[in-house]
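A student in our group prepared the protein record below, which I am reviewing. I have pasted the whole thing underneath without changing anything:
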Amino acid sequence: QVQLVESGGGSVQAGGSLRLSCAASGCTFSSYRMAWFRQAPGKEREFVAAISWSGGTTHYADSVKGRFTISRDNAKNMVYLQMSSLKPEDTAVYYCAATRGTVVTGQAYDYWGQGTQVTVSS
């Protein structure tokens, strides 16, 4: 059974930075596309960023391009989300997700973590 555990969330002022981590277990990590999603209070969960199994291809939501960077370390079964120039509208629960399918920005990922809270104050 694939397990994903996020960490690194917290509270930060606008303009600050945070790095989220997601540890994967129970799978051949390098076979999975990994992604980050987020869900703000009262809103639907939305795509943030995705990275291919090799790390060679990345995708970002327009709202985070140039500010967030997704990366992975297949030797450590880890995926990261470096968030910079944070804005209050980035406040949300951030989720790590994994798939061996073809979905990239959609919600049809096979496995999800429990989420980590990010709060950005103005």
Observations:
- The chain has a mean pLDDT of 96.
- The radius of gyration is 13 Å.
- Residues 79 and 88 are 24 Å apart (CA to CA).
